[in-house]
Write a structure and sequence with these properties.
Elements (H helix, E strand, L loop, with lengths): L2 H28 L4 H20 L10 H30 L10 H25 L1
Helix pairs in contact: 1-2, 3-4
Length: about 130
């Protein structure tokens, strides 16, 4: 890893730690969470993993066959992990497993969409090649 990439990694880790520190401080001190801080903490974390994986905070540059395979497999696995996590967040945040007691309809719709996005995308993509 050259100096520029190491510098980008150090900056990304520092930004992540600063945002995460502010989140913990605000939660402990004021018992409040800031959605903006949480969002940007996830952005900083994605930069860290892009730098570690591809050597660039923007992701893969020129892609060879192995890079394309890694991206395709990780996208599919990531989709299913996101589906499970969204479902868990729905049931944990609502405190129930009974669908009739769920009141957070936007999150319920989001979880429902996680089950249909992949089949719809595959359907459209397959039609492109027929």
């Amino acid at each position: 890893m050259d100096r520029t990439k190491k510098f980008m990694l150090i900056v990304s880790i520092s930004v992540f730690c600063i945002f995460a520190g502010f989140i913990v401080y605000n939660w402990v001190r004021f018992e409040a969470l800031d959605a903006g801080q949480i969002f940007f903490t996830f952005i900083a974390l994605s930069f860290i993993f892009n730098i570690l994986t591809w050597g660039n905070h923007e992701g893969a540059g020129e892609k060879d066959e192995m890079d394309l395979h890694i991206m395709a497999q990780s996208a599919r696995i990531g989709y299913f992990v996101l589906m499970v996590l969204a479902s868990l967040i729905l049931f944990i945040s609502e405190g129930t497993g009974n669908f009739n007691q769920i009141t957070n309809y936007p999150l319920l719709i989001l979880v429902g969409l996680t089950f249909v996005i992949l089949p719809i995308t595959e359907f459209i993509y397959k039609k492109k090649f027929k």
